[in-house]
Amino acid sequence: MNILLLEDEEPAAKRLEKLLKEIEPGVTVPENIVSVSSAVKWLQNNPLPDLIISDIQLADGLSFEIFKAVKTLCPVIFTTAYDQYAIEAFKVNSIDYLLKPVKKEALAAAIEKYKMLSQVKQAGIPDIGKLIEAMAAGGESKYKKRFAVKYGEHLKTISIEEAAYFYTEDKINFLTTKEGRRYTIDFNLDALESMLDPHVFFRINRQYIISITSIAEMFSYSKSRVLIKLNPPAKHETIVSTERSGDFKLWLGDSN
């Protein structure tokens, strides 16, 4: 069995390869790839592996982008620390979805499922039972409840209730609390959109995701856009982009 690994954390990749060889002694791993761009290039220039095991969050983005760029029927087992990606995972050729840290028994079951599905030519069919198990294993909520942040030499946690908005500046991502404190975080806005409760948070443009509770004032702006004054005040002018304005107005009236 030829298995391609997509994992940007070297210890996790080495552990996965070790587990795979314990489960299937004859397995070969042609390469471990750490980024979306490298994976796209590899898949475009090499024979397809029998199976791909992919972390969802890679060094330069979400691995779902790989399968949008490269149309492949190769089955995929996704791994991640966050269960909110489960539905999106099963839109790809996913046969399983494993929460990190990956357990040997779970990985063995996923490999067994791959072999069974391969025999009946149904590798693209998602297993709804495993989807439900994966969602249940993640806890009560599928959205992120807190963030670990670093300030100086210290670490602390920020609960999601404390977050006023998220933004990016010079390729660095920030969380601003309701008290006006700013912290760098490891997740870009694309990843955050999937982690945050959409009833509470909305991405108004390429640079900002805001909480409904952070809106102080709103004004009509040119081209059907909306100018927002945030509390605490933002460093930049915060305007809902034209393409997001319609959804934003619907979001404001969401009572669910």
What's the total count of β strands?
17
Morphology call:
elongated
Q: Any idea what the CATH superfamily of the largest domain is called?
A: Response regulator
Rg, rounded, reads 21 Å
Q: What are the low-pLDDT stretches, counting only 5+ consecutive residues below 50?
A: 121-140
Number of folding domains? Answer: 2
Which CATH class of the largest domain is shown? Alpha Beta
Number of helices: 8
Sequence of strands across the biggest β-sheet: 2-1-3-6-7
Broad structural category: alpha/beta
Order of helices and strands: EHEHEEEHEHEHHEEEEEHEEEEEH
User: Could you estimate the helical fraction of the residues in percent?
Assistant: 25-40%
Biggest sheet, open or closed, and with what strands and sense?
5 strands, parallel
Q: What's this model, at a glance?
A:
The chain has 256 residues and is α/β, with parallel strands linked by helices. The protein has eight helices and 17 strands.
Present the secondary structure layout.
Blueprint: E1 3-6, H1 10-23, E2 32-33, H2 36-45, E3 51-55, E4 57-58, E5 61-62, H3 64-69, E6 76-80, H4 86-89, E7 94-99, H5 104-119, H6 128-137, E8 146-151, E9 154-159, E10 163-169, E11 172-177, E12 182-185, H7 189-195, E13 201-203, E14 208-211, E15 215-220, E16 226-230, E17 238-240, H8 242-252
Parallel strand pairs: 1-2, 1-3, 3-6, 6-7
Antiparallel strand pairs: 4-5, 8-9, 10-11, 10-14, 11-12, 13-14, 15-16, 16-17
